[in-house]
Hints:
Radius of gyration: 26 Å
Bound molecules: S-adenosylmethionine
CATH class of the largest domain: Alpha Beta
Number of strands: 12
Distance between the termini: 102 Å
Largest sheet: 8 strands, mixed
Amino acid sequence: MSNQHPSGRIRPARSEQNRVAPARIQPARRVAYEVITAVRRDDAYANLLLPVKLERARLGAQDAALATELTYGTLRQQGYYDAVIELAAKRPTSEIDEAILDVLRLGVHQLLSMRVAAHAAVDESVSLAREVGSRSATGFVNGVLRTITRSEPDEWRARVMAAPRTDDERLSLEFSHPVWIVRAFRQALAAEGREEELEALLEADNFAPKVSLVALPGIAKVSEIRGERASKYSPVAGVSDGGDPALLPAVHEGRARVQDEGSQLAALALSRARPIEPGERWLDLCAGPGGKAVLLAAEAALGGVTLVANEITPARAQLVRNALKVLPEPPQVLVQDGRELGEQLAGQFDRILLDAPCTGLGALRRRPEARWRKQPKDVPDLSALQTQLLEAGLTALKPGGILAYVTCSPHLAETRAVVGSVLKNRTDVRRLDAVEVLSGVTKTPLPLGDGDDGHVQLWPHRHGTDAMFIALLQRDE
Ligand SMILES: C[S@@+](CC[C@H](N)C(=O)[O-])C[C@H]1O[C@@H](n2cnc3c(N)ncnc32)[C@H](O)[C@@H]1O
C-alpha cells in the first residue's frame, strides 16, 4: 500500500505516526547540560562558563535562574546522586558512559531536589540522551529515571544510607562531599572544640552564598551598596538584595565590588591591626586576581601608605592592575615568584598580606565542582608552597612589621600547621591576637571557637562567610 497522501505529500508509516515526538529540550536544561559536561570533560569552571553560556543563549531572568539551579545543584550533589543512580541502575557509575551519566545526574537533580514534573524531567532527559548517546542509551536513561520516580526522595535517601558505613562516609553521602573533605572539616572544627557543628557546615556548603559587596573606603560609601539586609560583621560591606550588583553605579564604576565578607575581614585585619603611620610600605605578596589588593590599596591611600602588589601569573597580575585602576594613584604590580621576593625585598615592609594559594576548601559554596576536583594529594604540595611563601613574607617584613597569613581553606595542614612549623624556626616572630584585632574591626562580635592561639577561623555556617583562616604575625623590633 502506498503512503502517498491525497495532498501529494508522503504520509509517514503507521509506526512513525504513533511514535511520540522527542521532547523539546528547554534552553535552560541544555545550557546546564553543556556546562556540566564541560566541567567533567574539559575541567571548565562552572562559575566562569555558565555566565558566558547564559549570555549566548539569551535566556531571560527566570530561565537563567533555572539553568543556574540545574547546573550548581547537579554539580554539588553529584556524590549523592551517583549513589542513587547506582542503586536504580544496579551497576556502578564507572560502568556508565560519562555523557549519559551527566544526563542522569541532571535528571536526578530535577526529580529529587526540584519541583519539576516527573514526566518533563524524564522526557527531556531521554531527548538529551538521544542527542548525546546511542539508541540503547535512551532506553537506559528512561528506565533508570522511571525507577527513581517510583519512590519518594526520602525513600531514596533512606536506601542510600542503609548500607553500613563509618560516620564520615555517611556524612559524605548525605551532604555530598568527598570523605577526605568531611574528615578535614571535622578535624578543623575539633581544633576549636566545635566538632558538633560538622553537619551544619556541610549543609551550608550546599547553598549559594548571599552576594556581599564592599564599598572601597575613601571612594565609595556603604550607603551606596546597602541592599535589603545590612552586613553583620564587615564595616565596609553591603549585602545585595538579589538584583544584579553591576547595575549599582558604585559597582559599575569599580568603586564597590562583589567580595565575600570573610575576604574583607582578612584585609581589614591587616590594615586595621594598629593605627597607620604615614609613609608605611605594604606588600600584597600573592595578589591575583586583586580583590583584597584593591581593598588594601583603598585603605593605604587613606593612610598615606605605599602598597606594592605581586602575583606570579602574568594574566592574574593583569587582573590585579585592572582592579587597581579605580584608585587615583594605582599601586605598582610586580610579576614574580613570591618565594624569591623575601630576599630581594628583605626588611622593607611594615605590613604584608600573604593570601596564600590553597585548596580553596573554604569556598565550596561558590565553586560547585571544586569539591570533586580537589584531591587529598594536592594538600602536601600546597602546604610546602605556603610554608616557603610565609618564610619569604616574614623575611620581607621590617622589624616590628605585621604579616597576615590568610587561606580560603580551613584544612589544618594549610592553616595552623603551616604557621606552627614556620614559627618553630623563627625566634624573631610572634603571634598577634587576630581575635582581638578583629573585635575592634567588626560591627558585631564574631562568635569564634576555643582555639587558644589567637588565630581566626571563619565559617560559612556560623558567620555566613567563606571559611577564611586569618593569622597575624609580628616581627620583633
Ligand atoms: C588565594 S589567591 C589570592 C587571592 C587574592 N588575594 C584576592 O583576594 O583576590 C593566591 C594567588 O597566589 C598566586 N600564587 C601562587 N603561587 C605564587 C607564588 N609562588 N608567588 C606569588 N604568587 C603566587 C596564585 O596565582 C593566586 O593568584
